[in-house]
Specification:
Layout (H helix, E strand, L loop, with lengths): L5 H18 L15 H25 L5 H26 L7 H21 L11
Helix pairs in contact: 1-2, 2-3, 2-4, 3-4
């Protein structure tokens, strides 16, 4: 049972992880300080790259590969991008020391698109992995 739901568990866990890290406010003493330009955008990219990747595998797992691959990828990209927008709005409205950022939304979107491209490349052509079971 657990083996058949590995991507479902991974996707849901990843989205909870993103939500907690996005909405939890860290005090200055909680995290080590270091200054790297645009590292936060790289983190957003990676978070949403993985969200799209795991989301597509989640859909494949739940539908047993019966849904069209491109339709599934498009669905998860739209869902993940909308989720990222909602998280940015919630950061602005619900947190005291966090604020939404349009550049975070752009990094999220690019990460989701690259994740979708990775899924497309892995399951297309003469690769051993096939979308349909």
């Amino acid at each position: 049972m657990l083996k058949k739901s590995i991507f479902t568990i991974a996707f849901i866990s990843w989205m909870v992880f993103i939500t907690l890290l996005s909405l939890f406010s860290f005090s200055e003493g909680d995290l080590p300080e270091f200054e790297l330009p645009f590292v936060d955008k790289l983190v957003h990219f990676i978070f949403y790259f993985m969200a799209a990747l795991l989301g597509a595998l989640f859909i494949r797992e739940r539908t047993k590969g019966k849904n069209d691959m491109m339709k599934s990828i498009l669905t998860i990209v739209i869902a993940v991008v909308l989720y990222g927008i909602i998280i940015e709005v919630l950061q602005s409205e619900l947190t005291v020391d966090r604020e939404g950022d349009v550049f975070d939304v752009m990094a999220n979107t690019i990460g989701a698109l690259v994740g979708a491209l990775a899924i497309k490349l892995v399951f297309s052509g003469k690769r051993q992995l096939k979308w349909k079971n």
